[in-house]
Amino acid sequence: MYTKHALRQLGVTPGTLSAQQKHQLDSQGYFIVENVLTPEDCARMRAEFERLHAAEHGKGGHEVHVEPGARRLSNIFNKTDAFDKCLWIPEVLAASAYLLGEIKVHGANVRDPVKGHGHQDLHVDVPKKFDDDWWVVNAMIMFDAMTLDNGPTRIVPGSHRWAPINVPYVNIGDWEPAPLSPEDAARVPADLSAPYPGEMLVEAPAGSAVICNSSMWHAGTLKKTDQPRRMLHLTYTRRDLPQQLLQLDYLTPELYNRMSPVKRYLMEIEPPKPGDGILRQPKKEHQGWWN
Questions:
Q1: What structural domains does the chain harbor?
Q2: CA–CA dist 163, 188 (Å, integer)
Q3: I need a labelling partner for 225 at 20 to 30 A (CA). Which of 80, 99, 104, 114 fits?
Q4: In angstroms, rounded to a whole number, what is the distance separating the alpha carbons of residues 116 and 119?
């Protein structure tokens, strides 16, 4: 199987993205699609987030990252089927394949910043080795509206074409930053936490998806209200790169059995066979349920 074959079986075609959406992704680094989830979908996902977070509480997100000042969940597809629909949003899959080529699920983390927290330094999620070396597509899928008061993401449109800035250590891999050109050096602010010229605060209604090139400069902002802002950060990556959360480390029979072969391929949850590449091997030293 390969990506185009898999996506066609899920109804994703060359016409799934409009010319305008492709242009905005190429030139600005993002676009927004509304109504990818119904109000009923959002209500169910909000309720399931609250149920799971109440059970995990301070450990929420521990499979990837426990974040002070934010309520988080990770490894969500092995815990519930409530979020499955998010995996197969046509525009997210189409945008990921458009930028990355051969794709697979990278990570999925539900996040809700706490009032008085959420402000971040400008950063990119992944590095790149040359101008259009895209590694990850991030879809911010809204279960609640993102407003100017509840910690909206700030982005710098067009900055995906600039040099990477403030890459998280865990995502660096074998990347070695190159010396900055004078033009790129002039773009780097002295204070990464300060407002940046040309940045915009993203507003989006519940049920929408903000689909971003993860090489775009962006950051969280301060949450000023108790109003929840629950959303799923769903990421896809190239098939030659490792997943953020290696699904095989946590794979349950329930998840495996409810996914079709096409969906197992895109999640990369087929149990390993002799001769498979090292990126598909579990990181943990344990026997999977399939052994």
A1: 3-267 (2.60.120.620)
A2: 9
A3: 80
A4: 9
Integer CA distances (angstroms), 66 to 56, 59, 226, 260, 290, in order: 11, 7, 20, 31, 29
Task: Supply 254's token pair.
Answer: 């329930």
176 CB contacts (<8 Å, ≥6 apart)?
A: none
User: CA geometry: angle at 110 spanning 105 and 111, to 5°?
Assistant: 135
d(CA 226, CA 52): 20
Tell me the one-letter amino acid at 115: K
Q: How many CB atoms lie within 10 A of CB 169?
A: 5
Q: pTM of this prediction?
A: 0.93
- With 0-12 / 13-18 / 19 or more C-beta atoms within 10 angstroms meaning exposed / middle / buried, residue 288 is middle
pLDDT per residue of the chain (291 residues) written in tens, 0 to 9:
899 999 999 999 999 999 999 999 999 999 999 999 999 999 999 999 999 999 998 898 899 888 888 899 999 999 999 999 999 999 999 999 999 999 999 999 999 999 998 888 999 999 999 999 999 999 999 999 999 999 999 999 999 999 999 888 777 777 888 888 999 999 999 999 999 999 999 999 999 999 999 999 999 999 999 889 999 999 999 999 999 999 999 999 999 999 999 999 999 998 877 666 555 555 666 567 676
User: Which residues, 6 or more positions from 130, have their beta carbon under 8 angstroms from its beta carbon?
Assistant: none
Provide the token pair at 217: 């400069």
What are the helix (H) ranges across 35-115? 39-56, 84-87, 90-100
Task: Please give the structure tokens belonging to residue 216.
Answer: 């775009």
Q: Which residues contact 149 (CB under 8 A, 6 or more apart)?
A: 223, 224, 225, 227
